[in-house]
Amino acid sequence: MLNLENLQLINTNSPRETLAYKGNGVVYKIPVKRTNPAYAKVWLDKQKLSKQVADSVSAKKTSDTYTIPKILEISDKEFFVKEELVTGEALKSSFVETLTPEELDIIYKGLANFTNDINQSRSVLTQKDSFDISTNINYVGGTPMSDVLEGLKKYLPEKSLDIVRMAKDWFDTAAENDASVVFAHGDINEHNVLFDRKTKKLSILDFAEAKYQNANYMFYVDYARLGWLDIDRLVEEYEKLPKAQPVRTKTDIKVKDMRNALYNFKSTAEEFLKKPNVATKIRLGLISQYIDKIKQLYEKVTGFNDFEKGLTNINTLNQIKEKQNNVKKAAAKKKGKRK
């Protein structure tokens, strides 16, 4: 039976999900709502994911620039996790400001190596892949877009669906040069990254939110939770490292906008197709709004409006020329009759 009375609570910063207690060289973690079995089970499932990811990344580590604590035990009966204790201080801005340039260099190299290792621990995907395939941990591509459009045939005109098809075709091509979709930590924050000034060791904790992410999002949103972090410097360190699978870290704003619009359309349509008889008119209206947005973006990225204007101008010029020719022919005919 786990007894927490003589243990020291070490995460006193209003923990959202987990209470952590320090023991003899180990940390015991329990859910905040331990007495709620349903909540505790969801929490425990996350800890099992955390162990699976931590073990797989540790097994494939390419550098000693960072450490990952081992999860030693997971109790399904008592709802606790026993983990190796790692020393260090949370990377809050106030602490980072006291570090030397050499210490900061260790941190940047450690973060870059860790990020590379976890990204390479599973398949690196393209944005196109992410629409239409599923992976085995915490990432579901969902129903292929072609199936979603087929299901909507009974409810929306083919012309509207063709707009989505054309936009998706454009996106599939453009996405080949867009940011990759990579397996990532998912919850980088100052309390999940520790640095020990004595040992010069960087430690990465808590993989309960690990999932596939857009590489651009991973750096510029997830890592941005570390307010002191120079993200461009981190990306530069990351891109220097050898990779068995190439990773693109930059995204084009037009591709990003189209990706978001297609995802919104697809997820809304998937939910609608599960129960099409519930608030049908309202939900079809929402789907149609997403199609209008996709159309606007498609016209923008392909220069569709310019093409249409150009075509109109050509037709107008042709009509003018035809009228002029007709006038000339009529005049010539009239002149011939006079002779």
TrEMBL record:
Pfam families: APH. Residues 86-214 form the Aminoglycoside phosphotransferase domain. Transmembrane segments: none annotated. InterPro entries: Aminoglycoside_PTrfase (IPR002575), Kinase-like_dom_sf (IPR011009). It comes from the Bacteria. Gene3D superfamilies: 3.90.1200.10. This is Phosphotransferase. It comes from Candidatus Enterousia avicola.
